[in-house]
Request: fold
Amino acid sequence: MVIAGVTLWYSNSIAEKIRQEEQLKVKLWSEAIQQRAQLVNYTQALFEELRREEREKADRLATAYGLINDPPPDMDLTFVTEYLWSNKTIPVLIYDGNDSILYRINLPPEHQGNKAYTDSLREVMSERNEPIPLQDVGHTIYYNDSYRFSELKAVMQNLINSFISETVINSASVPVILTDSTRKRVLRAERIDSVVLTEPDLLQQRLSRMAGQNPPIEIELPESGKNYIYYEDSVILNQLQYFPMVQLVLIGVFLLTAYLIFSTFRKAEQNQVWVGMAKETAHQLGTPLSSLMAWVPLLEAQGVDQSTLTEINKDVDRLNTITERFSKIGSRPGLQAERLDFMVQQSFDYLKLRMSRKVSFAVSCSLQEPLVNMSPPLFGWVLENLVKNAVDAMEGSGSLKAEIGEESGVVYLDITDSGKGVQKSQFKTVFEPGFTTKKRGWGLGLSLTKRIIEDYHGGKIFVKRSEIGKGTTFRIQLKRSIQTESPDTEQSA
Reply:
């Protein structure tokens, strides 16, 4: 938690510094836009003055031609003629009465002899300015705005386009939308998804979001009126907002991985301890068990009652089985095909003689040959644990029933007692190590049972049903063995 807290604090401080720098860039960018807009408007005012002067020259030129056509009495036309010949910027076309070109004045050199260009230019001139007829000589004069006037218009338009392009492109990595005065038509956009620009509803939502972050910049551009520049936080700034969250997730994944690795190592270490204790227990039981096995023939030779010796042999065999169980812990036991009903009946027959006589035992089987792969010593341990838990739950008085059947191709064994029952919330926790309802006990029996069934036999064990005061049913599911029972197999078994 300390590592996570320090890391998040440091990353947030870095993110905040970058956020302040990005906001400063955006602020400087917006101020530069307004200053450039003022410069464009100032330039437009100068250009308008030059355009007006060039227009006045064209008007004076038309007046001069008019004076030559109809001069006042006693007027000296020398100055007027010199003014006409000093024209270097206004294009003029003069046609005779037969509609043939006489003079081409101030036309581009590459178009001086191009009749098609001259005819199309005359049509443009006649649309913009009224032709001047020279009635005495039968000539007609066509004129247009000066080339300087046209160049000024082109330069001004390029300046406006350049301003718009640089405003959008050099936007300090922030998404930008430039709209007209209606705020519905997009003039230019940068770092904006094309889908947003084509869908009016999405566009208005995006503009509203941008206006919520930063007020739109209002600029006045020549010949287009008011325009609005919408912008929002840069892409980098938006990513920085999620950076601490992403970092927290990564730290969480790291801590979770570390915990899982530590838990795995700890569990492996505990398993090694349990395996070592189990094998040591089996080794310690071996010496007195060998001694007991040697005492049985000696007692038989001394004439001890045969029924007593039979029970002693059963207990010796049981101790031998227990020793084998402990010796198999920690290693993969060999499984063999066994009849489940025989195994359950054999275990019940042994245990009911050593349990309270107030407990009734019953085994039922709906299958003809319920063969399953099992390790008899370990599976007998499972049955012993379940029976002892059931007898404890019944407090030494009740009924215990084992039912064997098949469901969905899987052989099941239901062991039902008439004991106290368990709550539904404890159906899974009863198999956890340490869970017990008895005053004495370590709570390892059902945990060991689950491990033997699921890890060693590949089966499944769970609480099928339980009612408080009525009893509990444990179900064991095992895969059916594909082997068939034969006399040789039965004999070897």
